[in-house]
UniProtKB/TrEMBL annotation:
Taxonomic placement: Eukaryota, Metazoa, Chordata, Craniata, Vertebrata
Name of the molecule in the record: glutathione transferase
Organism: Neolamprologus brichardi
Pfam families, sorted: GST_C, GST_N_3
Keyword Transport part of the UniProt annotation: no
Domain GST N-terminal, residue spans: 1-64
Length: 226
């Protein structure tokens, strides 16, 4: 069906990841949340990136190395501890800086007040401190010696605002060394490819403004950023 064609195929499972189509009727039929990613496995539809990661690692537990999302009770709980924390912390704060820099000015036709930006940056700083001091401590990865999905989910949140000119890794050698270990484990090529669009995000405002759907998107975005 058209719906299935708009998903990309991953081992028989469809993952919707393309942004901008989330306001279509078709997307609303699969998820009224209207956010990506959305996973569709046969008739089973699942939203929320972290729930999707857990589903996929459990479904393919026979072929996915255990360290990604360990079966061990306490190790798995550590991954979930990070996942629960990050939504309201690292993710919320880094994506706020990202949106303030690339979306809000263009959608609202207004400069961001300095206090708003300073407050957002202060929140990012506190989250990065906690990532270092609580989650990483002196370990190579969040779970210890081996990489897990928690590291992959964490690293992208810090990379998200880099393309807009804010580099959260700056002045943090411990986080830089950890990011480089994650990059090495995933493979440099895959790491660069996965973050390519984000790294080019400084041209997003212009691209968004020139896009054919901007007039239609603007009122929706204005509501979101009010
Ligand atoms: N908690 C959700 C967040 C999903 C989310 O915020 N997705 C963003 C892209 S990273 C999105 O779809 N934004 C489009 C919009 O808000 O219209 C998850 O982890 O999957």
């Amino acid at each position: 069906s058209t719906l299935d064609q708009s998903f990309s195929l991953f081992s028989g499972i469809f993952i919707k990841y393309t942004l901008r189509q989330q306001y279509s009727k078709e997307f609303g039929d699969i998820s009224i949340v209207r956010k990506v990613p959305v996973m569709k496995d046969g008739g089973f539809i699942l939203t929320e990136s972290t729930a999707i990661l857990e589903y996929l690692t459990q479904k393919y537990s026979g072929s996915v190395a255990d360290h990604w999302f360990p079966a061990d009770l306490q190790q798995r709980a550590r991954v979930n501890e990070y996942f629960s924390w990050q939504h309201m912390n690292l993710r919320a704060h880094c994506s706020k800086v990202f949106l303030l820099r690339v979306r809000v000015p263009i959608v609202m036709d207004a400069e961001i007040p300095k206090e708003t930006m300073d407050f957002a940056l202060e929140n990012v700083k506190q989250s990065l401190n906690l990532l270092e001091e609580k989650f990483l401590q002196s370990k190579p990865f969040i779970l210890g010696d081996k990489i897990s999905v928690a590291d992959v989910v964490a690293v992208v949140e810090i990379i998200q605002p880099i393309g807009t000119g804010f580099d959260g890794f700056e002045g943090r050698p411990k986080l830089i060394a950890w990011r480089d270990r994650v990059k090495k484990e995933l493979g440099e090529k895959l790491f660069e490819e996965a973050h390519e669009a984000l790294m080019k995000s400084s041209n997003m405002p212009q691209k968004l403004k020139n896009s054919s759907s901007f007039a239609q998107l603007k009122p929706i975005l204005q509501k979101l950023f009010r």
